[in-house]
Design goal:
- The complex is a heterodimer of chains A (342) and B (566).
- Chain A has 342 residues and is an all-alpha fold.
- Chain A is built from twelve helices and no strands.
- The longest helix of chain A is centred in the middle third of the chain and has 38 residues.
- Chain B is of the alpha+beta class.
- Helices cover 25% and strands 20% of the residues of chain B.
- In chain B, the strands form five sheets. In chain B, strands 1, 7, 8, 9, 10, 11, 12, 16, 17, 18 and 19 form an eleven-stranded mixed sheet that branches. A three-stranded antiparallel sheet of chain B has the order 4-6-5, with helices on one face. A three-stranded antiparallel sheet of chain B has the order 13-14-15, with no helix packed on it.
- In chain B, helix 8 packs antiparallel against helix 10 and helix 14 packs antiparallel against helix 15.
- The two termini of chain B are 19 Å apart.
- The chains are: A mainly alpha (342), B alpha+beta (566).
Chain lengths: 342, 566
């Protein structure tokens, strides 16, 4: 297993380099212009100078090489320096990956966005799982009961109604129609400067997270509960279940110890594969509630043709996806002793 | 509920009225502003985006700015220099600004002429990529005569020398803070670019790029009783509709900027009684650019250039007039713009002294007259209803950027042109590509590989000279100048160029106005452009916020120091 993991990790290095090059190529070939969003009052000659000051005059392979050095060498060095408060080779004039729109290091922007994305999108993932697993279990155990039918209906709704609809619907109900002095009123705009210092501010944090988390959790729960249900149904008809019942085990033990454990194996893989999406943020929901996390950062970067930002963000997503694929594979091996990679 | 609120409000007003007389800095608490396009940076020299220049306008200020009527008002100086008061030299090559004494930066140090000189050098540095460089065009030297006097010298006579240090795009930054940020190192000064020291009413306490800015009242602000608000949150994100909702429906925010949404939705939201929609009109005009050169793809590189030859039918003035007369501008304004647009026949609709009335005939749609004109000129309808003459069919490719209002306009115009026997093919292009300067893309607005294109343009400030120069022969985009140039119709008329040259030598305001009107009339009557809508800016503020003076000539937040809570 260890050998397998190391082999896979070694293999990810060329894969990621290749991915970074493809992303760079795609962004470079796509028609975009970082000065495209400027007011029309700025004349074309000045725009040309701005593009040159951003380094767009250089040939493509040089720009790619520069990005690689900045991202793979300078950024890690900078992190080391910040952790240990040191100054390794030339920390004074070390070039970091700079966003074109904000003229600040891209990695700092990403770090600034992490808290709200992890709080809102991460929490919605956790809540989604916590809802989905019991629903999946009960739906499978009582297949075609009213509970199963209701669960199927809700997950279909969660799966097929887009978040930009549910989000705005919730805002209209809970922010507009309900008067703002009522306890059922929720803010429609997420305050990223809010700091949790006591119970009252914690309560406010819960309130402002409530609507975006609900919208996203509904979507996540819909997906996972379907997987859970299908996996449970597969296992309930297995011979070992009949054996367990024949041994005289309690139904509770049969269901929660034997069947659930075995059914969770594929579901955990699905959950692990979904984690990178948490870091990717939820572009639409973040826009609807102005959470301004990583998803919103990416979409602003794309709209403003902020290539270093988009390049770095998409590459980090690629790293996460590759990593979590590996984690899912390894988890699978650990959870299911029948599977051996060596 | 409403009555109770009203009574409480009245009671509060009574209780507070003695206090109001001696207003105090920070007495009105917190102000929430939402700009749905989030601010990326607080340095307008590194980002010309409106969202960024306006965010910065709360902190850094120019020497003079424009009020809501487009008049110049002294801001960090006591009076506007003119030839009459000796501030502008007789030969129009220099202007001398006298700073108001006693102004301090938000870090407590003195504001001096050295800061003004530094700002000019900062922007004029060739390696800095300064986005407001045009403000400093023709400037040869900026020097401090003493601590409070700055002299700007131009390389040629400047009849309108109010480019540098006037208006939202040309504020003063602090020399001490930005000293190490000159030229190529300008973009690396993250801390400075995110939190510039300023002379304005507020200063930055926390800047989260593309998200939110927290500000507090500047303790060194020149008026001890202002600003009324102690702190400001400047939030970004979402879209125009949700920003409008946050002010007009949920009441979470006090001010929302740039609400270009469906007019009926906006009216409906405003009906809630929580806020007010405000609009103002600057110089933005949505217009059709008529390609006077041949865009035929068979011409290869000579496509849409003077070398490629004239357009097969748009060079006929009758056709251009007919196209203009067939459009119902009132309906376009009503459908697409509501409070944010009114019909116009001029490419230069404002300020009032420059607005011509000679072309107002086009305000009334007249399909019958358009048809009659074309019949008379020999453009006869074929069996498919499309007019043709000498084998040339009136078939138009009409392009614009992707935007719901523009596509509605396109559809309506296509229908009207169909009624006069003109075939129209519509095309829309992503705004980033259309307005982007990508040389390899065939779809940029400069290349104009189409017969007609539509977009909005405007000019900053109130002086139209540079803007009107856009349509001189030298400004025609072509491969030889890398398609840089703003004369999209490829209009070239020696009479027009002569008027432009004369304006460059004229300084009296009335004469400049006469020339500008004449140039506008020439463009309109020759049909190089078809003006459609005079577009305004629309914002909304909460009913509890007082003092908002909507301004299209400067930052919408230009007088934020005077805003109060009612």
């Amino acid at each position: 297993m260890l050998n397998y993991t190391i082999r896979r990790l070694m293999f990810t290095i060329p894969v990621l380099l290749f991915i970074s090059f493809i992303i760079f190529l795609l962004l470079d070939l796509a028609p975009n212009d970082p000065t495209g969003n400027l007011p029309m009052t700025i004349p074309p000659e000045v725009r040309e100078k701005i593009r040159e000051s951003l380094g767009l005059g250089q040939p493509m392979h040089i720009r790619y090489f520069k990005w690689c050095v900045q991202f793979f060498v300078n950024e890690p060095l900078n992190i080391i320096d910040q952790w240990f408060n040191t100054c390794t080779w030339g920390c004074e004039d070390r070039l970091r990956v700079q966003s074109w729109a904000t003229r600040s290091p891209v990695v700092d922007l990403i770090v600034e966005r992490m808290p709200q994305t992890l709080w809102v999108v991460g929490m919605s993932y956790v809540v989604g799982i916590l809802i989905a697993v019991p629903i999946g279990v009960i739906s499978a155990y009582r297949q075609y009961s009213w509970f199963d039918q209701a669960g199927t209906f809700i997950s279909m709704v969660g799966f097929s109604v887009p978040t930009f609809f549910t989000g705005v619907l919730l805002i209209v109900i809970f922010s507009v129609m309900i008067p703002s002095d009522s306890m059922f009123w929720f803010p429609s705009i997420y305050d990223t400067t809010h700091k949790v210092t006591d119970w009252a501010s914690f309560g406010f944090q819960i309130r402002q997270m409530a609507m975006p988390v609900f919208v996203l959790a509904l979507y996540n729960a819909a997906q996972i509960s379907r997987f859970m249900r299908a996996s449970m149904l597969d296992n309930l008809n297995m011979d070992y279940v009949r054996t367990a019942r024949a041994k005289g085990l309690k139904e509770r033990t049969v269901l929660l110890v034997h069947v659930l454990r075995n059914s969770l194996i594929p579901v955990i893989t699905v959950i692990a594969l979904g984690v990178p999406q948490v870091f990717g943020g939820a572009i639409i929901t973040e826009q609807v509630f102005k959470v301004n996390g990583l998803g919103q950062l990416l979409i602003i970067g794309i709209q403003g043709a902020d290539i270093p930002l988009v390049q770095t963000l998409t590459f980090i997503f690629a790293v996460l996806i590759v990593l979590f694929n590996l984690i899912a594979d390894v988890l699978y091996g650990i959870l299911d002793p029948r599977i051996r990679y060596d | 509920m409403k009555l109770r609120t009203a009574l409480l409000g009245a009671a509060a007003a009574f209780a507070l009225s003695p206090m109001a007389a001696q207003a105090e800095r920070g007495s009105d608490g917190h102000l929430n502003i939402i700009y749905w396009q989030a601010a990326s940076i607080m340095n307008p020299f590194l980002s010309g985006g409106t969202k960024d220049t306006e965010a910065a306008s709360m902190v850094i200020e120019p020497l003079a700015r424009y009020d809501e009527n487009g008049n110049m008002v002294p801001w960090l100086v006591n009076e506007i220099p003119t030839v009459a008061n000796g501030g502008i030299s007789e030969d129009l090559t220099s202007i001398t600004w006298k700073l108001t004494p006693g102004i301090k930066w938000s870090d407590g140090t003195d504001f001096t002429a050295a800061d003004v000189v530094f700002t000019a050098n900062y922007c004029m540095d060739p390696e800095g990529g300064c986005q407001q460089e045009t403000k400093f065009s023709d400037v040869t030297n900026v020097e401090a005569l003493d601590d409070l006097t700055v002299k700007v010298t131009f390389g040629k006579p400047k009849p309108f020398p109010y480019g540098p240090f006037v208006g939202v795009e040309s504020p003063i930054i602090q020399a001490a803070q930005f000293a190490n940020c000159m030229g190529a190192s300008a973009p690396n000064c993250t801390a400075e670019n995110f939190g510039p020291h300023g002379t304005g009413a507020f200063r930055v306490t926390e800047f989260k790029a593309n998200d939110v800015i927290s500000l507090e009242a500047n303790p060194f602000y020149r008026d001890a009783s202002k600003p009324a608000f102690a702190t400001v949150t400047f939030k970004g994100g979402g879209d125009a509709a949700s920003a409008a909702r946050a002010v007009l429906e949920t009441g979470e925010f006090d001010y929302a900027w740039n609400l270009q949404i469906d007019p009926t939705i906006l009216t409906q939201m405003a009906g809630g009684g929580k806020g007010t929609v405000v609009s103002s009109f600057g110089t933005s005009v949505e217009r059709l650019m008529v390609n006077l050169t041949n865009p035929d793809s068979a011409l290869g590189d000579a496509r849409s250039t003077l070398e490629g030859g004239p357009h097969p039918f748009l060079t006929d003035p009758i056709v251009r007039t007919a196209l203009s007369v067939a459009i119902d501008r009132n309906l376009l304004a009503e459908v697409g713009y509501g409070a944010a647009g009114k019909p116009t026949c001029n490419v230069l609709p404002a300020p009032a002294i420059y607005a011509s009335t000679a072309n107002d005939g086009c305000l009334v749609q007249d399909i019958a007259a358009a048809n009659a004109m074309l019949d008379e000129a020999g453009w006869a309808r074929g069996s498919d209803g499309i007019r043709a003459k000498d084998g040339v069919r009136l078939s138009i490719l009409y392009q614009t950027s992707t935007n719901a209002v523009r596509q509605d306009t396109q559809a309506l115009v296509k229908q009207w042109w169909g009624e006069i026997g003109v075939e129209t093919e519509l095309k829309n292009i992503d705004a980033g590509v259309f307005f982007g300067g990508d040389q390899s893309s065939p779809d940029t607005y400069q290349k104009l590989y189409a017969d007609i294109e539509m977009y909005t343009n405007n000019f900053a400030g109130t002086d139209p000279e540079a803007y009107m120069n856009s349509w001189t022969c030298g400004e025609i985009p072509s491969p030889s100048n890398n398609w840089l140039g703003s004369n999209m119709p490829r209009y070239c008329n020696p009479a027009y160029d002569a008027l432009a040259a004369e304006m460059g030598k004229t300084s009296a305001l009335e004469d400049r106005a006469r020339l500008a009107k004449a140039m506008n009339d020439l463009l309109m009557q020759e049909g190089a452009m078809i003006a459609l809508i005079h577009r305004g800016d629309v914002s909304a503020h909460s009913n509890t916020l007082a003092g908002v003076k909507m301004n299209s000539w400067d930052s919408e937040l230009w007088n934020i120091a005077d805003w109060t809570r009612q």
